């Protein structure tokens, strides 16, 4: 494939919707796990699915994979109903769970051969085993968490899927292996694959995702691109005063008091900072001022409040 | 589907060998022991007269044929309790963990993430189980014939074929129940415990029904009433009702289990 046709293919993929979730609800008895969420994942993008424990991330992923069935709503993958066409779609989906459970008495090779036979194809690239420095001769029961995850990645990628569905793929892994997995995912996305991954690791999401869906208590609180989140205007202001601190005059609508110091105030503002700076400049006893742009973690925390 | 079938057989081959070895061990003992029983049959007949006849009947021992024919001896000694128990243990060990065990271990996601329908997964494991049961019955009962020949014991091979068929039908029903429970459970202990408990109750019902006239109809609720090893081994006969009951239970449970597995939520943690 030429460079031009490859980039055209990527552009074409980006216009396609790989995953479409429409008003998905999942209740376990009376317990609400997911409550009417809707989102789309475009072809070729890396979409992060972010939320604290119990937000509904794994439930949503299990619905995508047809492990569990929605109470209401619809899921389409690659244009097909995810439930009705589940076996057909799985040929194009690579799945990685947060905890990779394997047949303990089998070696890595036996797992790989079994999956090849189940899929009826042999597109396995042995280069992946070398890249991950994985020994496929060891029995799964003897593998460490990291090596089990490596085998999980091999099994997810071995059939060259169009879509990767990953549930906290770097959970419990050392930073070195985490970074290696990020490289693999970016390289797969560069080939035009769509990646949908859940995480509660903010740094990880910022590092590799194009867009992020933020989930809280079973509901979507935001769907943003990473760049837009970075550009969000959230500031932390440390204002130090000599003598009396004009708290009542400063802490007004739109300005949140985070902490009251012995000689100042710590404020948060989620808007244009210039009016606050102008107001503070009017106080002759203002002795020091420190303004910091909110970190990505602080931006995300705003969604969780 | 066939990779799952062959994988399941490979995983269970050691267990199958062990169960067959146990049966062959017992059969060897009985085949070696029977000639001396046969020699003393008159003395033993007198001794057995002192036993409560109803109790003997309740436990499936026909005294006359027990001591005068190899079929009768094996019907009372081996096929009345020992062989069915080993068969039940094999069935419960396999069926209980076939689906529920994979869900409990989390490995079911490896299968569900593949381009294979749940129905195919169900029947791959189901057919593997039936195959294992068939192989067990074939080997364990063939050993009876071979060992009887070894000790020059007189027997009718077709009667051992009949008990094999009856045993398969019994196993088909028990397997159907346990596999259905496995398909709806998320841990292997539940289907094993429920099936085992059900069979114990059925066995008790069958025993109690023979002691009291008012309880005689309880036997119809027991598989052990329809598993008539004496009729199979002494008369070379399987009652039509037994065939119907075992087949009906097996087929209905299989269908219910398949539907339940296809429709259920499967969450591993």
Automatic annotation (TrEMBL), chain B:
Keyword Membrane: yes
Keywords in alphabetical order: Membrane, Transmembrane, Transmembrane helix
Transmembrane portions of the chain: 16-38, 81-101, 122-148, 160-181, 193-211, 241-262
Xref: Pfam families: ABC2_membrane_2
The protein's name in its UniProt record: ABC transporter permease
GO molecular function: ABC-type transporter activity
Taxonomic placement: Bacteria, Candidatus Woykeibacteriota
Glycoprotein listed as a keyword: no
